Amino acid sequence: MAFFGKRFIGDIPQLEAQPVVLGGMVWRIRNHGKVAFCDLYDATGTIQCVASRDAPEALKVLQTIRPMTPLVVRGIVHRRPEHLVNPNEPLGAWEVALEEARPLAQPAEPPFDLDSTDLSIETLLDYRPITARRPRERAIFRVQATIVRAYRAALEARHFTEIQAPKIVGGDAEGGANVFPVQYLRGVPASLATSPQLYKQIMVGALERVYAVGPVFRAEKHATTRHLNEYVSLDAEMGFIEDHTDVMAVLEEVVRAIVAEVCSQHSDSLALLGAEPPLVPEKQPFPSIRFPEALDLITEHTGRDVRGEPDLAPEDERWLSQWARERYGSDFLFVTHYPSQKRPFYTMLDPDDPALTRSFDLLFRGVEIATGGQRLHREEDYLRRLRERGFNPSVFQFYLQAFRYGMPPHGGWGMGLERLTQKMLGLASVKEATLFVRDITRIDSRLFAESSQPSHAADEANA
Amino acid sequence: MAFFGKRFIGDIPQLEAQPVVLGGMVWRIRNHGKVAFCDLYDATGTIQCVASRDAPEALKVLQTIRPMTPLVVRGIVHRRPEHLVNPNEPLGAWEVALEEARPLAQPAEPPFDLDSTDLSIETLLDYRPITARRPRERAIFRVQATIVRAYRAALEARHFTEIQAPKIVGGDAEGGANVFPVQYLRGVPASLATSPQLYKQIMVGALERVYAVGPVFRAEKHATTRHLNEYVSLDAEMGFIEDHTDVMAVLEEVVRAIVAEVCSQHSDSLALLGAEPPLVPEKQPFPSIRFPEALDLITEHTGRDVRGEPDLAPEDERWLSQWARERYGSDFLFVTHYPSQKRPFYTMLDPDDPALTRSFDLLFRGVEIATGGQRLHREEDYLRRLRERGFNPSVFQFYLQAFRYGMPPHGGWGMGLERLTQKMLGLASVKEATLFVRDITRIDSRLFAESSQPSHAADEANA
Asked: Lesser CB count within 10 Å: N end or C end of chain A?
């Protein structure tokens, strides 16, 4: 279609010995005088192109262009000699002998070596429009797209319907200082949603099983490798459950489906990133531990007395993950029955111990990636709980209709896409798994930048 | 799994004469004394349940519960007598003879007749948590989920990768007063994205073909049947195009795939809503008309002299749609080559007439549902255009990296999910196709409500 029959690089293996037109971006260039090579990437893969003196004009093009030149080429598909082929590169067995090469733009010289393995996170983000083009980053964000696709497919196979939850909200629903104020029309105060929670619960009454994928916003002043101020939440909510374990069972199936899809579609990306496939127990469900027992275990084994704590500290989550990996061969661990004081107002208490809740977190390689549980479903329970927590129920009038007019027992979860991507790929920071980071220091560019010179991780470590 | 082997209603046709446990919400109840019926719906469909004196306790339950009671039932699947079956109801051939029925909550009496066919839009939205449960609304939002799924599938089959575009943005990129201010951390001024435009362009340099589905925000003070202040935009962007017609060709394939999927999956919903399947030309592409010729045509046929206008008025779009339907048998019409003054700064001018652009709108049944075109791809063109329009290029420093370091010719579109849903289903207002409306009068609830008594369309028409 475009450019007179441009084909995709991914189709090359079906085109041996045939003429082909490709369009893509130049990455590395290797000029040996009589012959020159470049790596060309498009939507589907990367291929080596070669120009020799048989095609002097194409050779001259390869000898004069810069990396990241958009290039249209015409040539013949060849198999490469077997001893040169790297088995981790799916298209490494092929190359295109160029007859013609046409640059579509003249890019500036890259501001630093894009193939460098020690770019600092600040440089990665300051220059995201070009660092996103690195093989490493293309791999990360393709895997992320697969995670989302596998998430949706697993839920749709289980009769969940996608809903569109709004992001501008009125009342401060979850009740915290951590919301971003928005100035709505006619000066009406509003804020950005910290979660689609209330909307997905509402929709259980209509569609029984719903899911939502979308941005959520937290005005938290963290500066860690785990936090973002805008991130993508993978949410789901389901009706007709007996308790939170029904929700956990579906979440586990979904997570297993994601892991299987990433491992089967992206073994080359995992190899490129040096990431190990997640360890999942094969004939057992994900291990699960109750919160009070988790505290006992940590106290017993680490010497830190955490009994009576209302929540797990980051180091506790790391220790528990390591424990589950050693004991159960699992990179995933459910922690259940968190204390009610740390859980939101809509959380169902544990009838056997009302200081605890029918809730869970899912830990993955040391970090909480999902949180969920059973919710209250009767209006009178909401009214009592809201008053206990000092909320004015009239602020929740719209939402409370769902319970006044009949709701089944229900529950669900929210899962952070960037954390899941980070931990799946063994990345040092969640920001490496985020295309355009919003955090305490930046919205695309740094908010209070003194300088945005490229920096290297090693420099920063020395600073 | 949940509730001791609860099955889904959609599986009923495979369960003839078998015992089954179902969980769902009660809709209509019909009590005939010796026998009582209810319609029960779940994530997968609606089924009639019947209780007779053979099961006196189940009969008593059906005789005493209210609509929207969440109910778990046990019974035997039967085929219904053929003369009672409505062919538009996929599960109408089956019923479940109850042995047991257990209500899981005691809902309040509905505040108005939910089956009423003339609820006003205000009542529909004020009571969305329960009006979303109506068969009509469940059909609308299931079709909407299918539209999004078909959109993604069509693009993924064409090598587009999904990206996550941020919603909090810094500089006012598209340059207009129509943005919602957000108070970011440490008082940094920010706003809500009116489009993922800059981000999807950036990502063409990395992934060649990308798409994004997500909310966008427009602080426009419209009060029409076409406008929302928060809506879902179906975006895509692709590299290595020759001009805007390459983009139109892909958009047309995607729209055809959506129409085909909705018609094949939801014939019952279309029937319920009285919606006609969209007319698409079978052996021809979608018709297309250049903007100046469109103005001539309107002037010639309607007597209104619109020559020299910079844009199409809503009545012009309606007239053109009607013309395309009569002339080409198509509910879809491309209008191309809009004047540059009404198009954003990144728009590629038409080299044959620089007062016009390589741009298009897609009209569907009288409304613009998508807008797109070819973009500039060279840094110098951006710098010149930004200065011409009075922008400070340094505000766009981050984005401009994409062009400085090499970008292919590219283009794309944005399509409004709610408008597409509305027009596909023949709904009077885009708000009927929006679960939780944000407009000049409401965020969930009305912003300045005097009263939120239920009202009927007829009452409002009289007012």
From this structure: C
- In single-letter form, the type of residue at position A22 comes to L
> By percentage, how much of chain A surpasses pLDDT 70?
95
What is the chain A residue with the closest CA to B408?
A70
Task: Give the predicted TM-score (pTM) of the model.
Answer: 0.96
Domain span including residue B76: 2-103
Residues of A in contact with B444 (CB under 8 A): 166, 169-170, 398
Strand partners, B347: B375
B442 belongs to a structural domain: no
CA distance B147 to chain A (A): 11
pLDDT-derived band at A1, boundaries 50, 70, 90: very low
The answer to whether residue A462 sits within a structural domain is no
Beta-strand runs (E) in A303-409: 332-336, 349-350, 353-357, 359-364, 367-375
pLDDT digits (tens, 9 = 90+) for A82-95: 888 887 777 889 99
CA–CA distance, A389 with B48 (Å, rounded to integer): 42
Q: Is residue A439 part of a domain?
A: no
The answer to whether residue A150 is domain-embedded is: yes
Closest CA–CA distance from residue B152 to any residue of chain A (Å):
9
Q: Are residues A203 and A336 in the same domain?
A: yes
> Is the torsion defined by CA of B428, B430, B436, B437 positive or negative?
negative
Q: Are B335 and B316 in contact (CB under 8 A)?
A: no
Are the beta carbons of B42 and A208 separated by less than 8 Å? Answer: yes
Give the pLDDT of residue A88. 73
Question: How far is it, in rounded angstroms, from Cα B403 to Cα B86?
Answer: 60
pLDDT of residue B458: 46
Contact between chains at A164 and B417 (C-beta distance less than 8 A) = yes
Of A357-371, B101-115, B170-184, least confident by mean pLDDT is: B170-184
Contact list in B for residue A202 (CB cut-off 8 A) is: 128-129, 132
Q: Is the Cα dihedral B284, B290, B291, B294 positive or negative?
A: negative
ipTM of the complex: 0.95
Do residue A405 and residue B108 have CB atoms under 8 angstroms apart?
yes
| Confidence at residue A336, expressed as pLDDT on a 0 to 100 scale | 98
**Same-domain pairing of A75 and A144:** no
Convert the pLDDT of each residue in A210-250 to its tens digit: 999 999 999 998 888 899 999 999 999 999 999 999 999 99
CB A79 within 8 Å of CB A45: no
- CB half-sphere exposure, A257, CA atoms < 13 A: 17
- Count Cα neighbours of B174 within 13 Å in the Cβ-side half-sphere: 22
Residues A140 and A97 in one domain: no
Give one word for B17, left, alpha or beta, with left for phi > 0 and alpha for psi -120 to 50. left
Mean of per-residue pLDDT scores for chain B: 94
The rounded mean pLDDT for chain A is 93
